[in-house]
Amino acid sequence: MDILRFATAGSVDDGKSTLIGRLLFDSKAIFEDQLEAVERTSRDRGTEYTDLSLLTDGLRAEREQGITIDVAYRYFATPKRKFIIADTPGHIQYTRNMVTGASTADLAIILIDARKGVLEQSRRHAFLTTLLRVPHLVLAVNKMDLVDYSEARFEEIREEFTAFASKLNASDLTFIPISALHGDNVVSRSENMPWYEGSSLLHHLENVHIASDRNLVDVRFPVQYVIRPHSATSQELHDYRGYAGQVAGGVLKPGDEVLHLPSGLTTTITGIDTFEGPVEEAFAPMSVTLRLADDIDISRGDMICRPNNQPEAAQEIDAMICWMADGLKLQPRSKLIIKHTTRTARALVRDLHYRLDVNTLHRDESAAALGLNEIGRVSLRTTQPLFVDDYARNRLTGGFILIDEATNGTVGAGMIVDAR
Amino acid sequence: MLQRDYTTSQLDVLEAEAIHIMREVAAEFERPCLLFSGGKDSIVMLRVAEKAFWPAPIPFPLMHVDTGHNFPEVIEFRDRRVAELGARLVVASVQASIDAGRVVEQTGRRASRNRLQTTTLLDAIEEHEFDAVFGGARRDEEKARAKERVFSFRDEFGQWDPKNQRPELWNLYNTKISRGEHIRVFPLSNWTELDVWHYIRREGIEIPSIYFSHTRAVFERDGMLLSDSEVVQRGEDEPPFEAVVRYRTVGDMTCTGAVASTATTIDQIIDEISATRITERGATRADDRASEAAMEDRKKEGYF
């Protein structure tokens, strides 16, 4: 059994909470005491139906205001897969939450109300999903019961969205007509829509192929921690020196010739260690420890790759930035801390090329700054070289976060588009 | 080009993520510690720590906040496991906090030291200058926890501010803090109760005996079975009786309920949990029942 992480975008009005509630309920991931608590609260508030959003809206402020503020993580499993849902609020003022939820997602579900069709917010959700390179996108056209399960209406929405998505170079795109309230095409195929020949939403989630979404081609091993036991009792351990980290790309094997950055020196992998013993290969997302043939000065923040396939060692970086700070703005001359893989440096904003309107995709080149939840293209110069790939090629070596030196807050997320 | 499908099993993915988190803390903080209660989640966390730094020993001490009302079987297990690993254990005692006048013991039959632990914990963090504290909390446990970050910032007062959390993207964790602040780190955030049990089975990890079915003198309160012990104030109207039970969670004796169970092996426990329709905290924890937001309120004060 493997894991599928998916993000859901939409508002309560689109039936998102109902959909999640149904997936959890039908997979027995909602327990009786949770359901009773939700029923009790719904009753106390005079709500006529059981408000399943209360299951995910866990914070007091969310319950009081009846809105989702933050990303909530939910878990369920079927015999085929374990699922992690990042349930993100859909409103524009929560763009940073959606970006956060999408950053680790294998798949995103965007909900559309069949009566309303493709709205501004649907386009925004699709854009953000594509910007974050979520490999699989599902357009769940909900409330089909309210349009008489009409194939024509579904096709109309599919065509409109497809036309828009072609501008985004969205990856794998699947359309599923559903009724979350009645369960049509959620867990099993609906008898109300015989014209629909695809799979149910859950069947799609269980079977979508994600193993090859990881980068298995470009070997990238950011050194995270150097393990040196310094054992006084064992001679073997006394000299042990291992480079621990989580594989960010490619497949590593003992005997492989590898290159160390920043030194540019080459050496050979003599062993890949785990607690259970040495292994024959390592690939993402495995956490392992490498032993190398030569005594090279290697420390945290360095990168192990292949001599003929190296990341860019760059101090000039162009990236799409999603700004996440309340109050502070990103503007030319801003100085920030940048954390990329296991390396932390300082970065200077050299230029803000444009601010993107996330609803219309219009580029505003006159923008002087980025505020909360705004996205734009920025040039940065860093104090040390970072070993980077384009985000489109590898999300782990192409993404970074920005930290404000004054408050220590995480103020931005970046996706590298060009580096030198 | 690829000869096979590089699928990774769910437990391997969760373990790799937890190892990554632990190494990140060891690399970026000066003085981390790991909260070890002898409960199943902290046992799993300790095993992951053992793996993360092998063949070197775990590079940080363990800490237990001892209410003085813990199950003796669990304390015995704790000490044995610590000795096996050759780890350093810091015991922060709620009794000592009471004796020093830092907190006042509750009275009455519902008296519990659960809430007092927060002061003891925060005092110990300050005394030892810990800047990162690993906890075994999982997001599936409770709705406030479902919103908490893996690296959860605490201010100088140890407080959690749920409305002002740092965004957490990819596997990049912001470890920056000022002096006096600390980060609570939850490497098992994405594990469910069943994942924990499947992992215990796969790894063949020993757990305290009270997780398995046994006969115990108990009494009933609010639909929960509490252990009949000198540290729990039992009323005249709460007669004790013997029952065949096990513990699904392990906390303070005054607020942790047992569940009727005949499960004597890990396999039987897994079967039982797979079939149950009640969450672990709902079934066994009086401390969460105080109100709809009981956990959120305690967490804001600095609770685990």
UniProtKB/TrEMBL annotation, chain A:
Q: Which CDD domains match?
A: CysN_ATPS, CysN_NodQ_II, CysN_NoDQ_III
Q: Please provide, alphabetically and separated by semicolons, the GO molecular function terms listed in this UniProt record.
A: ATP binding; GTP binding; GTPase activity; sulfate adenylyltransferase (ATP) activity
What domain of life is recorded for the organism?
A: Bacteria
Q: Which UniProt keywords apply?
A: ATP-binding, GTP-binding, Nucleotide-binding, Nucleotidyltransferase, Transferase
Against Gene3D superfamilies, the record matches this protein to: P-loop containing nucleotide triphosphate hydrolases, Translation factors
Protein's name in the database:
sulfate adenylyltransferase
Task: Enumerate the spans annotated as Tr-type G domain.
Answer: 1-214
UniProt-listed GO biological process terms: sulfur compound metabolic process
Q: What is the lineage of its organism?
A: Bacteria, Bacillati, Actinomycetota, Actinomycetes, Streptosporangiales
Write the Enzyme Commission number(s) for this entry: 2.7.7.4
Q: Which InterPro entries match?
A: CysN_GTP-bd, CysN_II, CysN_NoDQ_III, G_TR_CS, GTP-eEF1A_C, P-loop_NTPase, Small_GTP-bd, SO4_adenylTrfase_lsu
UniProtKB/TrEMBL annotation, chain B:
* UniProt keyword terms in alphabetical order: ATP-binding, Nucleotide-binding, Nucleotidyltransferase, Transferase
The record ties this protein, via Gene3D superfamilies, to: HUPs (3.40.50.620)
Q: Give the span(s) annotated as Disordered.
A: 281-304
Q: Give any GO molecular function from the UniProt entry.
A: sulfate adenylyltransferase (ATP) activity
Enzyme Commission designation = 2.7.7.4
Q: What InterPro entries does this protein's entry cite? A: PAPS_reduct_dom (IPR002500), Rossmann-like_a/b/a_fold (IPR014729), SO4_adenylTrfase_ssu (IPR011784), Sulfate_adenylyltrnsfr_sub2 (IPR050128)
- A single BP term in Gene Ontology: sulfate assimilation
The UniProt subunit note reads as follows: Heterodimer composed of CysD, the smaller subunit, and CysNC.
Listed NCBIfam families? CysD, PRK05253.1, PRK12563.1
Family under the similarity heading = Belongs to the PAPS reductase family. CysD subfamily.
Official protein name in the record: Sulfate adenylyltransferase subunit 2
